[in-house]
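Journal club prep, notes for RB
We'll compare a predicted complex against what the paper describes. Inputs for the 6-diazenyl-5-OXO-L-norleucine case:
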Amino acid sequence: TTQSSPISTGHLPSSDRVTTLVAQARDRFHSVDQGKVADYIPALAQVSRELFGVCVVGVDGSIHAAGDTDYQFSIQSVSKPFVFALICQVIGEDEARAKLGVNSTGRAFDSVIAITKINQGTSNPMVNAGAIAATSLAPGNTAADKWQFIQTELSRFAGRPLTLNEAVYQSEAATNQRNQGIAKLLQAYDRIFFDSTEATDIYTKQCSLNVTAKDLAVMAATLANGGVNPLTQERIIDPVHCQHVLAVMVTAGLYENSGDWLYETGLPGKSGVSGGMVTVSPGKGGLGTFAPPLDEAGNSVKGQLVTQFLSEQLGLNLF
Ligand code: DON
């Protein structure tokens, strides 16, 4: 679908134009009914496949929302880049890279093969292995301290207190044997940095934090804004860490489909199995979307469509 799109400039179009395009984008893809709502975490299957929210937050703090942008859902893998950012901030980018890696696996998000044969470890913090290892590096000597750090700091990214979705947490905790196995395998390679069972549990809680599409847009806009939340004006991470996180998102944010995604949008993005997505347009703003039906790789079908459309129409492609 070739469309005439504006050449990328250093800023978003006018505020009114962005609001109009966000509404148009939501209407354009509203009736798309492809994909499958995730059910390997049983509680996720309860969520309506009709929900659809699209939100752009500019680095100037402007909010442009259409559809179900205040509906709360569990953040899932969209938490991964933000936790990686926080770990870089705490231990520095060199140690973070040495411990977690920054290369793509070319495989599914929960691949075990990617840990064993070639890499003997985490690969990168956007897949489960690297994300559980990143979570294990949170400051604190106890699981409670580490969890508090993650909940508090992710809330600062969103600019409001994020709460646990108890039903999703219980449901995933009862069915996360694969992640427990991944964490044990990491332990065998000396690639996890806290008790593997406790680290997996904190990671499961992290994935169960409730967010809205608007929260995701604010979090993405914070990465677009050099680490300062554009609504609260609080600095969450240093600019240099935004650059590293965005590089890893480009490489691995949509797992084995990251190349297709970059080809279509020209932007760093991250998806999650509950149907949330973030996309970052450095210096301009962040996009948060929510639409539960997923493609084969576990990425929101409508989220990808609407992001490609908005990247073109808003002139966001980095290249
Ligand atoms: O670890 C899991 O399986 C989930 N908590 C998160 C996976 C996820 O969101 C992958 N995304 N597309």
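Talking point for the session: The domain at 15-76+210-313 is CATH 3.40.710.10 (Beta-lactamase).
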